[in-house]
Amino acid sequence: MPVLSTPWHFAWAAIPSYEVLLGALAVMVLCLGALLVMLGVWYRWWRQQHVCPEHRLLMPMLSEADDDRYLESGERVEESLGSIDYQVFFCPHPECDHIRTFRVEDVFSDYRRCPDCKFMTRSSTQTTQSYPTEKSTGSATVHEKCGHCDYALTYQVTLLELGPPAGGRLGSLTQQNHQTTGNSDQWGSGGLGGPYGGGGLGPGPF
Ligand SMILES: [Zn+2]
Ligand SMILES: [Zn+2]
């Protein structure tokens, strides 16, 4: 049947030539090579981090309870607050005290760096005294304190007044658009140039 044979005909025609296939193969080999090199570099870096340089032993990770004695008091507070996770790896050789500590910062943590002790243990809470309206600003008090040292700070902030409701602004923009479109036959694109700030490109000197 001629109707069925047509797709086969197209499929054969779509098979690329020998040179194209060879080119694709070369690109694939190059990509694979690059991937292997990257893997090798990563593996060397990983070995450097996780193998004791003296004894060539793989260093296991200490449990969260056991790694505390290798951490400073501020680092222990950071870990208990969840702002930083410390991972301590140790050489299992009985006569070796080589350890390596990794610091993993939690980017979603609410704790910030304390200006006094420099640990990520500063928290801040905000109490609103008056809420801003469309016509007036509001005010709030911010309390900052550190979970590790004695740092504490209280200050006032001004809350910016609310802009006009987004719906209203959108509404007027839509209306403007509508008008421009309505007049476009007479005014061309010049009408659009004005309100959208395209002055440079507008119908000025040209
Ligand atoms: Zn060692
Ligand atoms: Zn502090």
Helix percentage range: 25-40%
Indicate the low-confidence ranges by residue numbers.
168-206
SS-based structural class?
A: alpha+beta
List ligands, each type once. Answer: zinc ion
Looking at the structure, what is the overall shape? flat
Please report the distance between the alpha carbons of the first and last residues: 64 Å
Number of strands: 5
Regarding quaternary structure, what we see is: single chain
Approximate strand percentage: 15-25%
> Secondary-structure element order, as H and E?
HHHEEEEEHH
Radius of gyration, CA atoms, in whole angstroms = 33 Å
The mean pLDDT is 80
What topology, given as strand order, has the largest sheet? 3-4-5
* Main sheet summary: 3 strands, antiparallel
Count of individual helical segments: 5
Describe this structure in words.
The protein has a three-stranded antiparallel β-sheet, with no helix packed on it. The protein has a two-stranded antiparallel sheet with strand order 1-2. It has 206 residues and is of the alpha+beta class. 39% of the residues lie in helices and 19% in strands. Among the domains are: 54-109, no CATH class; 111-164, no CATH class. The two termini are 64 Å apart. The protein has five helices and five strands, in the order H-H-H-E-E-E-E-E-H-H. The longest helix has 33 residues, at 18-50. A hairpin with a 5-residue loop joins strand 4 and strand 5. One zinc ion (ZN) is lined by residues 114, 116-117, 119, 121, 146, 148-149, 151.
